[in-house]
Amino acid sequence: MEGCFAERVAVVTGGASGIGEATARALAAEGARVVVADCDRERGPRVASETARRLGRLDILVASAFSTAFGSIQSLGLAEWSRTIDVTLTAVFTGLRAAVLAMRQMGGGVVVNVASVSGLRGDRGLSAYNAAKAGVINLTRAAALELAPAGIRVNAVCPGLIDTPALQRALGRVPAREAVVRAAVPLGRFGRAEEVARAILFLASDAASYITGATLVVDGGLTAWSGIPDLVPGAGA
């Protein structure tokens, strides 16, 4: 994939840390001109529009900004719910809408939305995040259908437990808790942001030219389990 993004322009939201940062660095390393955008739902679309005007084109949008609120359904405040939905889902919509204007003028483009395995399954205490990421996944499908005639591909990645500052904050940096959570991953470790970035770059590249409306899970096998307790003792040894 070396140099396959030469002369292309990419906007990465939430690019200051974690998966967004790893993706921005990977795109730049492959020759892309990368703009790291703010996750704000007003400023993000503005950056996409200004990028296209200033650099003359917009080829790739990677939407990775998110916000998370923890708490049971009964304890979660409306403000916390709203912020999670606004940053994690609504900003994806507004950024997409702005990017599409520039991409239509070029005759095509690529959008990769960073969803989550939490958009495929439920989690206790993460109802707002679950709802927002599930929305990102289905928005990806709807956008892929609408934008295919314009030559714009829209896909999503669903990371699992990735070793990012956000995960460390969620785990409270407590080693015992980290060990329990890590043990739930069949591959036995947390993923690296760079591993998700490589999946994003694949979807954004010409190698994925016939892929749109897809969801690529990058979770070390976390969602492969049905949840049924082991029926054959020692089968997982």
Question: What report would you give on this structure?
Answer:
- The chain is of the alpha/beta class and 237 residues long.
- 43% of the residues lie in helices and 14% in strands.
- Helix 1 crosses helix 7 and helix 2 (43-55) runs parallel beside helix 3 (78-106).
Distance between the termini: 36 Å
Question: What is the percent of helical residues?
Answer: 40-55%
Which consecutive residue ranges, at least 5 long each, have pLDDT under 50? none
Number of strands: 6
Strand order of the largest sheet: 2-1-3-4-5-6
Mean pLDDT: 91
Q: What proportion strand?
A: 5-15%
Order of helix and strand elements from N to C terminus: EHEHEHEHEHHHE
